[in-house]
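Reopening this ticket.

The earlier resolution said the output was attached, but the attachment link was broken on my side. Pasting everything inline this time so it's all in one place.
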Amino acid sequence: MSRDTQLKERWEKLVDILSNQFSQGEDLDLDAIIYLIGVQELGKVHREFKKDEKLNLMHIAICRLLEPYGYYEFEFFDDEGWPHYKVKEELPPLKAGEQSVLMKEAIVNYFLERQLIE
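Inline output:
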């Protein structure tokens, strides 16, 4: 099975699992899944977040997802428990499609590590 086919199958399975758990009939999109990962990484799942906090959660998720690729490195947790990352290497210029594939691959790897999917 080609890497692209495997990624596509794993992505679709992951979207189904997360959508069934966190959505009411609609498939979650990439941004929604990134947001969920941010909430997971923060560890405060049962609270409402303000708009700016939601953006920060997505930033946390992106940093965490791209950390294994060498783009970010975890630095510390602040006094409120929010993780902070530093840039290790700038992301190369990517077209929208390439960016989407990178994020989907990183998300699939994140959930493979957590054994939510195989």
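Reporter confirms the inline version is readable. The longest strand covers residues 72-77. Residues 3-22 form the longest helix (20 residues).
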